[in-house]
Each structure stands twice: as structure tokens, then as C-alpha cells.
Amino acid sequence: MDINEIRKQFPVLDQQVYGKPLVYLDNAATTQKPLCVIERERDYYLHENCNIHRGVHYLSQMATEAYEHARQTVARFINAPEAQEIVFTRGTTESLNLLATSLLGTHSMCPCNPTVLVTAMEHHSNLVPWQQMVQRQGGKLLVAPMDDSGVLDLHAYEDLLKQGPQIVSMAHVSNTLGTVNPVKEMIRLAHQYGALAVVDGAQSMAHLPIDVQDLDCDFFVFSGHKMYAPMGIGGLYGKTEWLEKLPPYQFGGEMVDTVSFEKTTFNKLPFKFEAGTPNVGAALGLETAIHYIESFDRNEVLKHEDALVAATIKGLSKIEGMRFIGQAPVRSGLVSFIIDGIHPYDLGTIIDKMGVAVRTGHHCAEPVMTRFGIPGTVRASFAMYNTLEEVEVLVKAVNKAANMLR
Q1: pLDDT at residue 107, as a whole number
Q2: How far is CA 383 from CA 26, 293, 329, in A?
Q3: What is the set of active-site residues?
Q4: Of 170, 150, 174, 148, whose CA–CA distance to 160 is shortest?
Q5: pTM of the predicted model, to two decimals?
Q6: How confident is the model over 172-213, as pLDDT tens digits?
Q7: Contact, 237 vs 88, CB < 8 A?
Q8: Residue whose C-alpha is closest to residue 122's, from 60, 156, 79, 173
Q9: 48-294: CATH class
Q10: Element of type H or E holding 241
Q11: Residue 112: its pLDDT value, please?
């Protein structure tokens, strides 16, 4: 991997903040976009812009063909059996709200008083929708615990499955701890006990190869903006047998088949879940981002990112009072930490003045912070364009900031 050549594709990285070269280490929140993605979305608005599926004229036909080709690309990227199993959404959050509402909101898939099992390391997007729906339906939410290193307790997880949850929803990679969960085994156990399995892939799509057939998940959700694609686009994979049974999430144009004042019938898959005008330009940007990711040896990218994580841990561990939050043996993409006696917001603010962009706070995973008895963490998260030199800058900045705050 030629990191210098890669960085040329990300002009946002070539700037200064507060008179310092920008070191962007907030990739778990959103990745930067390569020129090819930016240019593809721009090209759509310059030459192809049109509403899709609804016109017989040239532009509409061209835009429709491009949009559906993007769907096919997503399906191939995650090894979905059919393109119709890919529903475009605004991202992980909307995908999970779609599932929670359609699976639980109408009782069409689950009985009254439903039970949903999640893990203790979930992002709010994979917690709050399920929590709210089970509370409305008089059900309950079960939570699989984790240990002090941020590793899920699989024995406790299986014991909770014995309580008969209809749905299990799990993070593939924790956005706060970096833990890579054994989702294939978790899915197998969920199916063994009769539960549907949902995987939150927001933090895994950019880093790990995804094969939904090998995982055998019933649903898989993701966001484009965390994998070098534009904001406002993402997706939901679902097995055809379940998507056909689910009621629509939203109502309006495109998702209908026939409409009268007396009755409405709904469109076929995946269109019954895509009400209204879609974000066509972003979908084409997502397709381009996938092509960009596939232009590299993914094992080499993973080795590079793992080396960044290892170097960060090695460098930060020398700082007095350093405490890492999340020390799972299998992890991906990020390092979360605090320093004794220093609030993470204060640390992050000073680091920012040194040109280093990190995330501070609870990272939309407040129960994780409660579990560890802390107000939040500082999180450095990595992408293929980050360098070991940037890790050195981070370590020096954290050390300097800690000395200033003590």
C-alpha cells in the first residue's frame, strides 16, 4: 500500500487547523471521501439527475439503470443472493428503525409482549428503537453482558436465549470498544433457539469482508458514510422470506402497486420499503466507494489498520494514568482511552488545538460508559489513509495535553 498515493485521493486531509497539519482520527464517526466518490456524485447531478422508476424518457431511464446497478454492486459486495434483498436507506439508524417498527410495531412478525435481546455494547441506534418498541408492546429487552475487557459473555448470551427472544440484534464491531463480536456463532445460537438475527455492520463494512450468506444473518444493516461513501445513504440486507412478510415502514409514492380510496396494495421487493424520492446521487457514490475499497488488497488494508491500532496502544500506554476502555483480543479500527483525573472533553479539546481530530464523549453508547463507571472516553479511530507518523503526533499531543491538565 502506497499511503502517500492514497492520501492524494482525499484532499480534505491536506490542510492545516490552528496552524497545524490536520491529523484526522475520527473515522468511526465518518470517513473522508475519495475524489472518485465526490466526482461520481457531482457527475450524476451534472449529467444524469432525474427521478427514477417513474419516467420513460432518457434521463429517467439512465438514472434508474445506474441506481439499480448500484444495488447490484452492494449485493455482490456483501454476497447477498439477490439484489432485491438490498433496501436503500439513509443509513444504519433508519435501517434499524425500519426493522424495529416493521417487526414489532404491527405484531405481524412477533406476538404481543415481544422479547428482544441486544448486547451491552450497542450503539444507541441498535438499542433505543428496540427498547421503545418493546415498551410500547408490553414486552421486554434482554441485555447480554460483557466482561471488563469488553468481550461479550457468550455463556450468559446463550442463557438469555433460553428465555425465548423473538429477535437478537448485535453489533458486529463495537463503536466504543473496537471489539469484534463472534457474530457467526451468535447467529447460529440465535437460530438454534428460534430467534431472528440482526447484525449492525456500521463499524465493520469499511474494515472487514462481509458475507451475509456465510454469516447466515436474517438482516444486516450499514451506513455508507463510514465506508468512504456520502452521508445520507446506507442499506438493509434482509432474507427474501422475511422481507416479503414485513409490512412497509413508510407510505407514499413508489412503494405502492395499486391505490384507490378503498384499498392500497404494495410494490414488490425491495421497492415497498423505499417510499418517496431516493438519494440517487449518494447511492451512486456508495457504489463508487465500494469499487474504491475493492481496488485494494483488503488483507493488506486490515494489516495496516491493525498496525495503527497496535502502535497507538504501545505509544499511549507509556503515559502516566492511561486507561484503555476495551481490550478485547479481537478488535478493529479504534482505540478508546481515558487518563486518570482528566475529563475526556478537556483532553480532546486541547488535542484538537494541536491539529488532531479525535472523538470525545459517550459515542452514542451511554450504557457502555455506565458499565465502566466513566463519563466518556477519547476515541482515536483509523482508516486506510492514516499513517504511523500521525499516530506519533497523536501520542505526543495526548502526552502534552495530559501534562498541561494535571
Answers
A1: 47
A2: 9, 11, 20
A3: 364
A4: 170
A5: 0.96
A6: 999 999 999 999 999 999 999 999 999 999 999 999 999 999
A7: no
A8: 173
A9: alpha beta
A10: helix 240-245
A11: 76
Say if strands 167-171 and 86-89 run parallel, antiparallel, or are unpaired. unpaired
Residue 343's identity, in one-letter code, is H
SS3 382: coil
- Taking 70 as the pLDDT cut, the residues of the chain under it are 106-111
What value does the CA radius of gyration of the chain take, rounded to a whole number of Å?
22
Contacts of 195 (CB under 8 A, 6+ apart): 117, 161, 164, 165, 166, 167, 168
Stretch(es) of the chain classified as CATH 3.90.1150.10: 3-27+297-405
- Alpha carbon distance 268, 233 (integer Å): 21
Helices (H) and strands (E) in the chain, counts: 14, 17
Q: Provide the CATH topology of domain 3-27+297-405.
A: Aspartate Aminotransferase, domain 1 (3.90.1150)
Q: According to the model, what pLDDT value does residue 53 have?
A: 87
Answer yes or no: are the C-beta atoms of 324 and 24 closer than 8 Å. no
Residue 80 CA to residue 29 CA, distance in Å, equals 26
Q: Is the alpha carbon torsion for 200, 314, 392, 18 positive or negative?
A: positive
Kindly report the number of other CB atoms within 10 A of residue 20's CB atom.
Answer: 14
Q: What is the pLDDT of residues 158-176, one digit of tens each?
A: 999 999 999 999 999 999 9
What count of Cα atoms within 13 Å lies in the side-chain half-sphere of residue 63? Answer: 26
Using alpha carbons, select from 137, 79, 145, 97 the residue that is nearest to residue 118: 145
Starting at the earlier edge strand, list the strands of the sheet with 115-119.
86-89, 234-238, 219-223, 196-200, 167-171, 115-119, 140-144
pLDDT at position 108, please? 54
Q: What are phi and psi of 335, to 5 degrees?
A: -135, 125
Residues of the chain with CATH 3.40.640.10: 48-294
Contacts within 8 Å (CB) and 24+ apart, 5-13: 6/384, 6/385, 7/385, 9/34, 9/35, 9/36, 9/292, 9/385, 10/34, 10/35, 10/385, 11/35, 13/385
* CA dihedral of residues 394, 398, 401, 406 (deg, nearest 10): -170
| Dihedral angle sign, alpha carbons of residues 158, 161, 162, 163 | positive
CB atoms within 10 A of CB 244: 12
Residue 53 one-letter amino acid: H
Ramachandran assignment for 372, one of left (phi > 0), alpha (psi -120 to 50 degrees), beta (any other):
alpha
